[in-house]
Amino acid sequence: xxxxxxxxxxxxxxxxxxxxxxxxxxxxxxxxxxxxxxxxxxxxxxxxxxxxxxxxxxxxxxxxxxxxxxxxxxxxxxxxxxxxxxxxxxxxxxxxxxxxxxxxxxxxxxxxxxxxxxxxxxxxxxxxxxxxxxxxxxxxxxxxxxxxxxxxxxxxxxxxxxxxxxxxxxxxxxxxxxxxxxxxxxxxxxxxxxxxxxxxxxxxxxxxxxxxxxxxxxxxxxxxxxxxxxxxxxxxxxxxxxxxxxxxxxxxxxxxxxxxxxxxxxxxxxxxxxxxxxxxxxxxxxxxxxxxxxxxxxxxxxxxxxxxxxxxxxxxxxxxxxxxxxxxxxxxxxxxxxxxxxxxxxxxxxxxxxxxxxxxxxxxxxxxxxxxxxxxxxxxxxxxxxxxxxxxxxxxxxxxxxxxxxxxxxxxxxxxxxxxxxxxxxxxxxxxxxxxxxxxxxxxxxxxxxxxxxxxxxxxxxxxxxxxxxxxxxxxxxxxxxxxxxxxxxxxxxxxxxxxxxxxxxxxxxxxxxxxxxxxxxxxxxxxxxxxxxxxxxxxxxxxxxxxxxxxxxxxxxxxxxxxxxxxxxxxxxxxxxxxxxxxxxxxxxxxxxxxxxxxxxxxxxxxxxxxxxxxxxxxxxxxxxxxxxxxxxxxxxxxxxxxxxxxxxxxxxxxxxxxxxxxxxxxxxxxxxxxxxxxxxxxxxxxxxxxxxxxxxxxxxxxxxxxxxxxxxxxxxxxxxxxxxxxxxxxxxxxxxxxxxxxxxxxxxxxxxxxxxxxxxxxxxxxxxxxxxxxxxxxxxxxxxxxxxxxxxxxxxxxxxxxxxxxxxxxxxxxxxxxxxxxxxxxxxxxxxxxxxxxxxxxxxxxxxxxxxxxxxxxxxxxxxxxxxxxxxxxxxxxxxxxxx
Length: 886
Fold this sequence. Notes:
The protein is mainly alpha-helical. It is built from 38 helices and nine strands. It has a three-stranded antiparallel beta sheet with strand order 1-5-6. The protein has a two-stranded antiparallel ribbon with strand order 2-3. A two-stranded antiparallel sheet has the order 4-7. β5 (about 600-605) and β6 (about 605-610) form a beta hairpin. The longest helix has 30 residues, at about 315-345. It is globular. The chain starts with about 30 loop residues before the first strand and ends with a helix.
């Protein structure tokens, strides 16, 4: 499916579902999606935001983001190191370096000691699936300590020393516990040197820790912590506390978990007085324990800390604070949901299928066998991915035995592709089987207890007093609340405190009927452009003036912002100001000037950035092994980087409220750049053809031939037609051979391709304009499209009439398929007909995304194919169709 329009989170390393999907398809393959406004986060990569360039704040922003903004709004700031920590928090960057990189460093250190090792131990082998078979209880710090120790021992005693080799063997055993069953290093006798025996004591304790045998690990770390001769004494003392805390985190029984956390707290409090080298690490342990045991106290401590400078661990404090707020918020939501259920119990015939008690299912035990699927061969000798057979084997069966058994069952030799897939499936199956059975599967680092999806807004009065006692927490909950009382509360707080943050919130929450609006608007006039709140205040001041019908004042405020200050704002804010100016445009030229926006970034299949960044290094699409057509396609896409294009609102407005004659006026407007003019002309020509407006169709075609780089010859053939029938045939062929044509303009970047690119035509042409849309709770409602005030009733009426005519024609694939069939029946001797029938057949095949999902028109496909095969059996197009069908 295309990305949903309900934004959930920020991308980068955060999860994102953006509010942008192409106009013409409800579902289908991924395509470049422009992001014009970040709805629930600042513009990436966040550096400018953490420096105080906060843009236009919205209640949908995440709480970490709003905490940062709050300090800037009230005159505070963050130093350079703090800004880096904030970026890590916003991106979700972990507190430790990437574990896989440390594994590679450890492997490199091993190679310096073990020379001539033919094969690495299996736990160090990077799988073909791009990762090491490790679980998160072995953090990067474990490998850092191992690297440091190995380098030290090898430097002191020599890499070839037998004792160093024994140390390394023991460490390999320790790390086996990261992903495998419990493995404990062998106990050493008194003949071994003291340093090795003490290292082995530590390795053994660590092995018990990583294998989740916590009681034994605590016992052994305590013994080491009492050994004044051990170099591990201080670290072992700290690790006792860490082990107790880890044990508590994995405890499932709540009373036992509480007791375990209290035991950990008692130890770590004592440890904090003697920690020395590990003082900072101990402080973090204690903070985590307070997070778990005393959340109400901890959230208030963090609120006070984050309001002012001086946080020792800003990144973690910010994460902990927001997680605690989310936890308490989720509790309030759950309590309110349960209260509503008691007030309105579901009836027996309720449609709410979730009202009945959920059936509990026992988890299925892990399968003892592994499966290998081999696909059958079709008549042409190629793999048929629609059919195949699955073979099951015991996990200890070798791959050679598996391949031989499959060949016997199939009665044929396996192809190279069969063998490759079987090997890959075998490796993956063993990998997952190993992971399923590892004791470390139950390990979890997640302390997050907030709402992750389908979160509800509840009345502010339901939040407990301790959460709203602190100014920061109260401000956050109120700013994000949809409660009608949020405005009055914010206004009262501003009057009492004169806090800039509360003033800003009052303005954001206000609407044209809000009481005390005049004082707010008057105070907004005093906000200077160099203040962090300026963009938010200016945007909402303009919003309110527009709502009040004071468009002239709104334009007077917007004009200097756009003319002299626009580049000082984040791109999202720039686009929001441009949209405001578009909404109060005095005429078509002004509308088009402000309707075009530059995206913040583009999104494609989990990647966010410029088109060039998404497409990858230049050598990828300059490679001669890549199809020339694909190379040219990528290059043409990259040309759109930095260009101003239509967003969804502008495209909808043009499609709904601009008649075909007004579209031609758009194409002729001097403010419209050439690359947009070409798109508008193509849409105007297509629309004119569908509406049988030959005058405008011809005007548009003349301009297209004069300016376009693509398919000029096709449009010239239309212009060369003399009769109405000839023009209709020529236009039909132009449409069929140009799947990018549509009577509608879409947001984003167009992809110009032709029918003969691959004849797959999955995302070709257009669909009927949707008449409905979905609100924030996914409830369907009539679509409401902005209508520019300068359009006269006559122009709007003409556009509405044309829109109804095009809706009546239906979706493009069926419409064009029928046009091709009509043409074939009307002019059977036209040499262009076989190609038209071929395209009509391919466009309406099954297993392709249509306008509403997996749609196709069997009747059109069958009729077109029959005409092609029966009437033109020896044409290249009939032969091509038969070849493809095989």
